[in-house]
Amino acid sequence: MERIKTFIRNNWQLKLLATGLAALVVYEIRDATSFEVPYDIPIEVKAGEGIAILDQPKTVRVVFRGSQDDLRRLNQNEMAAVVKPRATDPTGSEKIMIRSSDIQGAPGVRKVQIEPHVVTITFDREIEKNVAVSKPQVLGTPLIGKVELDYQPRSVKIRGSYLRLMNKEEIGTEPVDVDGRVESFTKRVKILDKWVTRVEPAEVTVNVNIVTELITREWTNVTVRGILAPGSAGEIRFDPPAVRVGLKGRAKEIDKVASNAVMAFVDCTGIGPGVVTNLPVSVHIPVGADVDASVEPAAVRADVGGRKEKGGR
User: Fold this and answer.
1) How much is the pLDDT for 25?
2) pLDDT of residue 311
3) Each residue of 208-222: pLDDT tens digit?
4) Are 36 and 64 in contact (CB under 8 A)?
5) Which of 37, 73, 175, 233 could hold 137 in an S-S bridge, CB 3.0 to 4.6 Å?
6) CA-angle at 66, arms to 36 and 119, nearest 5°
7) Cα 175–178–184 angle (5° rounding)?
8) Are 149 and 136 in contact (CB under 8 A)?
9) What tens digit of pLDDT does each residue of 246-262 get?
């Protein structure tokens, strides 16, 4: 061991190299963890029973320092500055210092700056009351049709500052995004009010109905066609020979019918030769087409004359 110490004392170049390597390692570690990023995070005040918050700053800016990987893992929605006032009386105010230990939801990084470092919280007596829920705001426009909303419940129970809530009779919710929608849907949205400390229930269920504007399109002089039983042949005369067909529905659905040609027909499979009778007129609608059809006249006079079986004499 003594020989090793003597060797190191007599080799100053080796000592210099070791010192340089140590400094380099320290520099590399400091450089790898010296990245900084600021976030504005909400302040959560944990007041005692019966005490509400009348006024407070809503956010505090915190500068975090750490490696790039640690900073990338931060989620602003999970962070908060949680403070607990000492107040036991719902009057007056209190200055509270925000410490690094109060910043929650940011593991693995240092909190190098907090601004403001001291915040003032003003207190009030807490009350509870029932208020109506206002109709949710609609964002965007559906691809087709218009929007009709129905939501439940229509009222909720809230708690908060007496001075803030004593005249409040209605409370709002998150907006509902309908942009580009083509079908009705149901969504749960949160009750929103920055001065309410508690709300029951915290969400309402919104039924969003996409109501499509219907149009009517008519075709005149549509020839009436007859349907015969398999293996039958013969001439069928209709009076009148043509009808007027009306289709009501969404333009897209009506176009689906029109692209296959609008056809009117009469079922004559149960009518014998020489029979003259009135029969209802139907309209051919492709499977899946959501339209209502009307025919005028609704029935025609059918003359099944000269009808005979195929191959007969």
Assistant:
1) 46
2) 45
3) 998 877 888 999 999
4) yes
5) 175
6) 60
7) 115
8) yes
9) 999 888 788 878 777 78
